[in-house]
Amino acid sequence: MGVPGSVNQISPMKKPFSSNVIAPPKFPRSAGSLGPKSWIEENMYRTDNNSNTLLPLQDRSRMYDSLNMHSLESSLIDIMRAEQDPLKGRVGCPHPGTDSLLMLNGRSSLFPIDDGLLDDGHGNQGVLGSPHCYPHQNGERIERFSRKVFVGGLPPDIDEDEITSSFRRFGHLFVDWPHKAESKSYFPPKGYAFLLFQEESSVQALIEACLEEDGKLYLCVSSPTIKDKPVQIRPWNLSDSDFVMDGSQPLDPRKTIFVGGVPRPLRAVELAMIMDRLYGGVCYAGIDTDPELKYPKGAGRVAFSNQQSYIAAISARFVQLQHGDIDKRVEVKPYVLDDQLCDECQGARCGGKFAPFFCANVTCLQYYCEFCWANIHSRAGREFHKPLVKEGADRPRQIHFRWN
């Protein structure tokens, strides 16, 4: 991680140091002089009006009454049945019926959002419009950030206790990093860690104390050998988990893709714009988050308004996500439902059980029971089709800790 090029005069990063001298005592943190952040508003992204022409091979008309109301699939169907509102290009705002849609991202309910407090979709992903203005409803402060915060560019010799001490003033927290339990290391091996705060208000307090440079947040942290090193603070704004590009379009789970390996800084609005630029017809994008901390899990969903865009996306199989500093190849698959009847026999040949297989080949794009799969795919040209099955949801790694 690079250090910001130009720094505010009030920033402690401007302090002159001739060298990093080893000294027995730890240097005190000097965060009191951190300056206020600037807040930049930009225009919303464009939206495309795409045709909604269905290809004959995927013209579905039956209802999905069997869907579990606590699943992504039912959430999408709720939206299809809901009254259509003219919502376009909204970040974190409810598409018709999205009270349950947010179960897609591991959240149990939709937090109320005031239009005046919505991010515009282009600003800093983790900052409030005003550092001292918290949204309230019924006298209670509304959570706007995940309690899990990324901190990068840490001093190489800073250990867990020193990280905890540096951030304890914002509230009770636990420090974690990938494979921490297995490695038994006292130092974050790659120079970054995650701060898991007990209260969301601690994250807001941390953001207030940061200095913003070039759209990124920084805070100075000291170690035994390095004084006031600026480290990047990257909070996750909950409203960045969902983006409704075209609220007038019903969301069809059979035109929804799963995107694996999504970089965690990528927001739903950015995922939507990338996919729309590549294939067109995007009406919704969501970033999967874990249910407890509401932090991105590294996967997402994109719903298209037309069959051509959906088929183009799943036919590509891999997509290069390029946005800002992000440049990563990710996998694209059809989103597989786990409670669909066989499209061939409608459950007649399998006792009404849900179909376990989905064929993603564009000549099929159907759900099959075991009998129908064997029957259909014994035909010439289809014997090499491979079935997709519903994958188990990622679960956050269990960690045992006490609040410091």
TrEMBL record:
<keyword id="KW-0677">Repeat</keyword>
<dbReference type="InterPro" id="IPR034819">
    <property type="entry name" value="CPEB"/>
</dbReference>
<dbReference type="GO" id="GO:0043022">
    <property type="term" value="F:ribosome binding"/>
</dbReference>
<dbReference type="InterPro" id="IPR012677">
    <property type="entry name" value="Nucleotide-bd_a/b_plait_sf"/>
</dbReference>
<protein>
    <recommendedName>
        <fullName>RRM domain-containing protein</fullName>
    </recommendedName>
</protein>
<dbReference type="GO" id="GO:0003730">
    <property type="term" value="F:mRNA 3'-UTR binding"/>
</dbReference>
<dbReference type="InterPro" id="IPR000504">
    <property type="entry name" value="RRM_dom"/>
</dbReference>
<dbReference type="GO" id="GO:0005634">
    <property type="term" value="C:nucleus"/>
</dbReference>
<dbReference type="GO" id="GO:0045202">
    <property type="term" value="C:synapse"/>
</dbReference>
<dbReference type="GO" id="GO:0008135">
    <property type="term" value="F:translation factor activity, RNA binding"/>
</dbReference>
<dbReference type="InterPro" id="IPR038446">
    <property type="entry name" value="CEBP_ZZ_sf"/>
</dbReference>
<feature type="domain" description="RRM">
    <location>
        <begin position="255"/>
        <end position="333"/>
    </location>
</feature>
<keyword id="KW-0963">Cytoplasm</keyword>
<keyword id="KW-0694">RNA-binding</keyword>
<dbReference type="InterPro" id="IPR032296">
    <property type="entry name" value="CEBP_ZZ"/>
</dbReference>
<comment type="similarity">
    <text>Belongs to the RRM CPEB family.</text>
</comment>
<dbReference type="Pfam" id="PF16367">
    <property type="entry name" value="RRM_7"/>
</dbReference>
<dbReference type="Pfam" id="PF16366">
    <property type="entry name" value="CEBP_ZZ"/>
</dbReference>
<feature type="domain" description="RRM">
    <location>
        <begin position="147"/>
        <end position="234"/>
    </location>
</feature>
<dbReference type="GO" id="GO:0043005">
    <property type="term" value="C:neuron projection"/>
</dbReference>
<dbReference type="GO" id="GO:2000766">
    <property type="term" value="P:negative regulation of cytoplasmic translation"/>
</dbReference>
<dbReference type="InterPro" id="IPR035979">
    <property type="entry name" value="RBD_domain_sf"/>
</dbReference>
<dbReference type="GO" id="GO:0005737">
    <property type="term" value="C:cytoplasm"/>
</dbReference>
<dbReference type="GO" id="GO:0000900">
    <property type="term" value="F:mRNA regulatory element binding translation repressor activity"/>
</dbReference>
